[in-house]
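protien #1 (seq + structre)
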Amino acid sequence: MNPELLGRQIYILERLSSLPRKILSLHGNENISELVLHELCRQECFNIDRAAYFIDNPDFDCLKGVVGHCRADFSPEGDGDVWQDPQGFGARTKESAFNKKVRGFTQESAFKRKKGEKETADLIAHELDLSCHGFYSWQMKHDNHGIFIYERAPDHDGADYDKFLPEGVMLLGFCPVF
């Protein structure tokens, strides 16, 4: 195995394994989803330019955007350790045009209407102007469904570490939703 790829995989696994501790350390904070999403999108992690997290709740017949992250909406120098200033990062995220678009997205439950996952992801991607997107969908507690839609950075190398993305994305399901 390529030593550079192995090093990157180890780095990503270290980042992912630290997230549960970070999530618990900010218990009660309203923007934990933003922090987790930012961490997953970082160039050093999965190198994602734009990503959005949705929850589909068939019981309440609602598919709702929770948070969106767009790298272009943040400082090119990076935001440092956002976990040290969660309120400041949350305020910057609230001002992000992409995040506002995601949070404003609401429609009837796709799962209640038995729409396919790909069809639902394509619809959301079209609404968010994501041209070349990937998605993950997973079962959550209380019969909810998480949907994660993303657009890669142009310099993404397509390496083998993407197999860890579902494990990271599912951590969003442990974040409180406000």
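ok now protien #2
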Amino acid sequence: MKRLKSSVFSCMLLSLAPASAWAQDGGGGFGARDSFAFTVENVFGYVSTSVGAGDKTVSVDTTGLLPPYWGDVGLFSMSPGGVNWGALLGFEHLIPKDGGNGTSAKLRPRIGYATSKNWLGFWLRGGPSFLFAHESGDEDSDSNSSAMLALGFEAYAVMMPVDHVGILLGPHADIHLLGSASKGDDPSYSSYGLSLGLMGEIW
């Protein structure tokens, strides 16, 4: 597992260098036209997520087909110069075995840069990642609400076997900055991984 985590971090760093060189070479297609891009991300791959507070922090590593609640849907406005902006949105609803339930929402505003040549491109994005969670127990006194902020980024290779439809492959990470809760210790949230996603352009 340690070797796998090291490989993920290496991919995060190495993906930035070819993207920079590619941008200097120019290109057309994706990243060079007015459009909207709709994405479904974190469909397949490896993701490590840590969330909680104090001794209640939970870390989960998943490889393969990722649970639907770990995925996100996104909508981005693409400009001819390659600059784009938009946001990712995700929800999760859990019913623990010991009663009660929990709901969380993820919001990831992003600004990025995209470029491509023929059927291959790069898409770099960054911005804040917000996680809002609410846990409710059998009684109102057991309820707890929390909000967490992380700094996130994605560095995707974009493979487009068909024009306007792409496969996203690359590393992503959310690095915890701060958190607050209605009661108890301040919570934290962090995540990183290497995963596959899908993209479609609307023009």
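The helical segments are 2-14, 16-25.
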